[in-house]
Amino acid sequence: MSHHQSAGSERRSGALTIVKRVDPPRFWRSLEARSRSPELIEASKGEFPQGADQLADEPSRRSFMQLVGASTALVGAAACQRPNQKIYPYVRRPPEVTPGNPLHFATAYSLEGYARGLVVESHGGRPTKIEGNSDHPDSLGATTALDQALILGLYDDNRARQITHRREPGLGPEPAAWRSILVMIAERSEKLAQKNGAGLRFLVDPSASPLQADLRARLSERFPQAKFVAFSAVAAEGAALGNKLAFGRPLETRHDLAQAQVILALDADFLGDGPEQVKLSRQFGASRTPGPAMSRLYVAEPCFTPTGMLADHRLRLRGSEILALAQALVVELAKQPGLDGLAPLAGLPRAAASVDARWVAALAKDLARTRGKCAIIAGRRQPAAVHALAAAMNSALRNVGATVNYATPLAIDGGVEALRGLVEDIAAGTVDTLVITAKNPVFGAPADFKFDKLLARVPLSIYCGMAEDETSAAVTTFVPVAHSLESWGDGRALDGTVSIIQPLIHPLWSQVTDTDVTAAFLGEGDKGSHDLLTTFWKKRAIGSGWATDVSFDGLWESWLAKGVVDRTAAQPESGLATNPGALAGALAPLVAKAVKGDSIEIGFAVCPKVFDGRYANNAWLQELPHPVTKITWDNAVLMSKATAARLNVETGDVVRIEAGDRHVTGPAYIQPGHADEAVTVALGYGRTVAGKLAKGVGFNAAALRDSASPWFARGVNLARTSRTIRFGITQDHWDMEGRDPVIVATLAEFHKEGSHVNEKLEQQRRPLETIHEPVDYSQQPYKWAMAIDLSKCSGCNACVVACVSENNIPIVGRENVRIGREMQWLRLDRYYEGPVEDPEVVVQPVMCMHCEAAPCEYVCPVNATVHSDEGLNEMVYNRCVGTRYCNNNCPYKVRRFNFLDYHKEPSHVDKMATNPDVTVRSRGIMEKCTYCVQRIERKRIDARVEGRKIADGEIVTACQQVCPTGAIDFGSLNDPGARVTALHADPRRYNLLHEIGTRPRTAYLARIRNPNPELA
Amino acid sequence: MASLFRPHHNVLARLSLLLLAGGAVGGLGGVFFYVRSPLARGMQDPIEQPIQFDHRHHTRDEGIDCRFCHNTVEKSPHAGIPETQLCLNCHSQIWNQSPLLEPVRKSFFEGRPINWKKVNDVPDFVYFNHSIHVAKGVGCVTCHGRVDLMPAVEKANPLTMSWCLDCHRNPEKNLRPVSEVTNMEWKPEGDPVEVGHALKEQNQVLTRTSCTTCHR
Q1: Three-state DSSP class for A682?
Q2: How far apart are CA A387 and CA A238, in angstroms?
Q3: Residues 6+ apart with CB under 8 A from A548
Q4: Could you tell me the pTM of the whole model?
Q5: What is the ipTM of this complex?
Q6: How far does the CA of residue A380 sit from the closest CA of chain B (Å)?
Q7: Which of A90, A97, A875 is the best mutation test for B, with the most CBs of B within 10 A?
Q8: Distance of alpha carbon A320 from alpha carbon A355, whole angstroms
Q9: Do A89 and B80 touch (CB under 8 A)?
């Protein structure tokens, strides 16, 4: 019997012992799926994984009956009474408020020193949804996943409310009033001023805020010897240092990929991280339309990132080996005609690492070919040498001034080296007053600084934080501060554009801001940040001749309305040039000092969910599947399959990592495409003093971080422990049963007439024979549809959080994710393609397809899911009785069931975060993507009241609005001029699972890669 | 021995069977009619409000248009309950010493809203929008009844889903010129059916019955 025979005949033959050989599927989502693991196949057979319909805490039958009895009784009682509702009108209605209609306010949010413009939707005075500000240069109308989650951060019940003060370090904290803190600061600053501020230190968050800069300048006048140290656990220190080496002064790097044809990312996740993330995503997304101008992306990185997942060529290298790649590239570039100026750098001693020579040679040719229209981007984790080499190459390639610009830094830059000076001062006992507005430095500082112990030596340490954390526990005085959405301030984008940060709501708890505490040292702590801000900007506006004393108020209002202050963008430096000869001399000792050693390398990663740990108490972000691993509520020790095999470790095994005398334990996860002999751990987990969600989630990788090598270190030992854990991973739930849900091709294949991929695309959209005549929607005013471009999606997760925020989607917790109860309506399927060691990745957003022939509708016994006249697949919550037949019959597995009452007894602040335009679903209800029908209906009513049709682009779904790369489009197919109509007619268009005849309204555009023909 | 059951027991048995069946049908029917009755719907039950606001006086005697107080009705899902300030725009001049208006003055000076009781309420999963109905010529009186004759406002219509759908399926009989939406006494001139059809055309009324029209 040949092994080609079907499984059925194997079963019939009974005594058959030959194991059926199965080729791995072309696309796979996990190692288990690739090997067709029997457990996975068994687990994915049902509509939900096994056990999903069991209560997580397994109540006894008795308690179940009690619950049922009680709820029945309550239902009966509730039905007898007419709900007695009240209406509370305004006493004095603000003129801009129309009850029932939301308002939108422009503001900004600063992360890592740079602000991104936001437009926040406010319902009845409570902010409910974050959008991007299209007038802002680093937002362009979109935001990141982190920005989206600000809403939940604002309404976090675990935020601190009480100022506490210890009379001496070591004594117990006592509640204190803001007045008494002001008095204390006034007395203290009086004394400090007499000794010129000696002993006064400010440990601040990196910030480009003009107001903060002004305060710093004024503080320096009063306290000439006071010092300001900026600190962030994840600062890009290498960039400033590297640019200083290359150009002789510290400059910061700006990018402009609008014209870039070839992009090289050296461990730079420019699509998933950094102040330019949204802007570069937008520009890069625009350049991914297949055609002669399609860009090509080369990425070298140790572990997959959103940028790596979109790469045309990805080279997996350990983080410290990127330097060797940069050097090899310089050598190859120097050989290219016209680039021999790089020759002195090519002569540098080479960092030890083997780099694929063919890859580098092809890349060098590609870069030389597109000089002036290419970009080399170095990542925040890379050392100065890599940034300097990138600057030298960009300069030689004439990219400076085109795709890459350098400018005088606007933010005071902080990092490990900046903190070292402060640490030494504290250790020497010369610091007696320390004001901390940096984000949780005790948690973020390298472990060898022992910063919490050091703080005990400072007689007065004042910390401004939003919630109790590791730092608030170590200082003498903790001042809870208001959220960014509750306070006045300002910030600058990377290009210098100023935005005024205006509050959306009166502070829920503490009204004090960082600015107030800083200003208290100038005796202005009781002025309030609004007063400080307007005073400062009035002075500046009048000084710059923008306004007079009279006209300032109007100008100020226009800034608030637009969200940006015009004419504040700072010009980049021009006429910059590197001197490769001098640079080579400066780099030689750095290259010699590069990370060496034979043992496993540990790399620390900025978490795309909790960042450096500051968002650890944010449930939306914790439950967000990691863009690559799809792990929720945990971090992991990521390693390649080969490394795991050598260490005898499997996914879920808890490993102990030792570095010197420090160690942590964390669960291992085998990450396809990870560099060998290296592990990656995300920072920001394992918080010990934190809100109730953050505690006990993950392990604190920072405990291994050493100030000498904060990003990559060798000399660590890994050993398996006897413990294992089960991750809450969303990607293993539901199996696509061996079908190919994504269509991927190279540009050449796609352009070839009649090629396999074009045939396949045609096959996946051609009309199918049907028994029933399809419903004709062409006479309806609108025929809603969506198009998703897989060539643009980086899997950055912004859409998932936007959807959660817009649609009041509940959070279920790690235990429930493990058993497949996650509720997010929109999931990002991540498919690997190719060898386990070095696969390529395609990300596919999947939500309800709004099938015209929807399988869910046929099986609902109560008509709870039906079709609208315009072809929307509607979910009627109040009809749903929870049979879950619909989800069983849904081929896309996009329906979500409320197994538990996740919204039961919400606190007042929980309620404030909900969108009033969307029903809050109760237990036992099926729900799914609605194409943001609340937005459709609002626009429809607006248009109908005005007596016109809805224009194309007027309705923007939450996922579409937030998408930084512009991968999602929505509109009416009955509008021949609509963008979505054109995309549905695109040659790349195909339907997901077209063959089953569901006629989905959501179309996909195939992922087209643009590989270098030389590397084919 | 005489038989246990006599012939007249047959009658009794039949009668009790009939009663049983009748009782079941009647009971169910009773529930059926009860839930549809004005009593169960809370109709014709004037609600006592914290202030004895009399619509009769304000609309009939003073001739104030509905939209003077309910002034967001044309641009918002909510018609709007007037803010305290709006009451005092007039009542700071007239009846400014009236004890009946004491709660209004108290609200204004203390900055606390007046706690009106809701009369017309739909469930939270219903997204009713006033602006579109007014824009398409559905009069206030159509749903709210003769508020101008109510000493205390009461619910005039059942506000059940079938009541909504009756109109969404056949809106003609409830339409009027957009200029007459607040007119409590408007009557169509001529054949109501013809007028209704003409108004549907004129006001571009496209009623929808898809679920998400009201439920989201």
Answers
A1: strand
A2: 7
A3: A542
A4: 0.90
A5: 0.88
A6: 44
A7: A90
A8: 12
A9: yes
